[in-house]
Design brief:
This protein is mainly α. It contains six helices and no strands. Among the domains are: 57 residues, no CATH class; 87 residues, no CATH class. The termini are far apart. GO terms for molecular function: calmodulin binding.
């Protein structure tokens, strides 16, 4: 039952009692004096004031009981928290919370470490694949000699560096020898042409500086063709040897005398 319905019930009961008393006495006059009207109005105002006062008193008592109940609950909770088992339980709870936060931080750090480790493994595998591809391109085969893996790899790197240096030297020599816009030993390519490049023969010779001696079987060709081919190959090899600095003074062709 709410406060509004309670107020209505109290006011209704007062008015019902007054009408019932008037009907029992049979005091019903069609015309009342002015004095009786003012008296009845004052009685109505008094009854309403009393009802309002009673309502306020009841509401204040309700609020006071509610506040008292709340204060009693707070005091009971304070007493419970001040006891030893509660303090121990709170300390254990805080300890578990700290442990859980540490576990979460360790899991997060482990995940980051696994990601970084995976990236390093992937990078290592990628470098290994690149090295294997490079070895395959250079066509290096592992032999059963006394050289170690590091020595072979170092030799491969030295060869690569020497190849780069030779290509630079050949490009420099090509630029010097093509002052008139034409080359003398690359088929007359123009220097300004963007499509010029080393022929397969120059690339093959530049990639194999350790193979200075030329072994070509020309016994099946006629003598004139053989002499012509020997002259061209000798001139090309000597020129490349001079440019690369690997000329030893003799070039041997199978079945013929050394030049």
């Amino acid at each position: 039952m709410g406060c509004g319905s309670f107020f209505k019930a109290i006011i209704g009961s007062k008015k019902g009692k007054q009408t019932s008393r008037k009907s029992e006495k049979g005091f019903i006059k069609p015309k009342a004096s002015k004095k009786n009207v003012t008296r009845s109005a004052s009685l109505v105002f008094l009854s309403e004031d009393r009802a309002a006062t009673r309502i306020q008193t009841t509401f204040k008592a309700y609020k006071a009981r509610k506040m008292l109940r709340r204060l009693k609950g707070i005091a009971r909770a304070k007493l419970l928290t001040e006891k030893q088992p509660v303090k121990k339980q709170a300390a254990v709870t805080l300890k578990y919370l700290h442990s859980w936060s540490n576990i979460q931080s360790q899991i997060k750090a482990r995940r980051v470490g696994m990601v970084m480790e995976g990236r390093l493994i992937f990078k290592r595998l990628e470098n290994q694949q690149k090295l294997e591809a490079k070895l395959h391109d250079i066509e290096v085969e592992w032999n059963g000699g006394t050289e170690t893996k590091d020595e072979i790899l170092e030799r491969i790197h030295q060869r690569e560096e020497a190849m780069i240096k030779r290509e630079r030297a050949l490009a420099y020599a090509f630029s010097l020898s093509s002052a008139d816009g034409k080359t003398q030993w690359l088929g007359g390519y123009e220097l300004g042409n963007t499509n010029w490049g080393w022929s397969w023969k120059e690339r093959w010779i530049a990639a194999r500086p350790w193979e200075i001696d030329v072994d070509i079987g020309l016994s099946t060709f006629p003598n004139e063709v053989t002499r012509l081919v020997i002259g061209v190959v000798t001139s090309l090899v000597v020129e490349m040897a001079f440019l690369t600095g690997k000329y030893t003074g003799r070039i041997c062709i199978a079945g013929y005398q050394c030049h």
